[in-house]
Amino acid sequence: MACRRGGRRIGSPAPMTAEIHISEQTTALTQLMRQKLRVRGNTLPIVLARGKYRLPKRIVRAVNRLIEAETMAENPRLQMMLDHQALDASIREVERFLADIDPSDERKGWYLGILASLVINLLTLAILLIAVMLWQGYL
Predict the structure, then answer these.
(1) What's the whole-number mean pLDDT along residues 21-39?
(2) What is the pTM of this model?
(3) DSSP string for residues in the chain
């Protein structure tokens, strides 16, 4: 026998659409970061901690705003303080940055870097070997 006030039953929980909305978006962003940055983790703070070194500061700040908003959305009073436009802008900024990352291209770059280092070391060794042989009179 709950009394009605303002079209809502007193004692019933407030609708949590903002919490669900932010939670769904951060879950999707977590999956995207796991895929693009190739890091492990189930939550956004863990994925950010493991992939932070590969992200620019502006993206790290945007993700931290989302993490803070997700925790604020759990509390109905703090939920009203959220700026949804700024959060949507942060999500778009992070998604736009992550869309440009190509994991296969980065893997190729890593292999080419290793190969270039190996070639330079072999050339240096060959030059030093020839220099020593000239100095000792073998050539």
Answers:
(1) 92
(2) 0.71
(3) -PPEETTEETTSPPP-HHHHHHHHHHHHHHHHHHHHHT---SSHHHHHHHHGGGS-HHHHHHHHHHHHHHHHTTSHHHHTT--HHHHHHHHHHHHHHHHT--HHHHHHHHHHHHHHHHHHHHHHHHHHHHHHHHHHT--
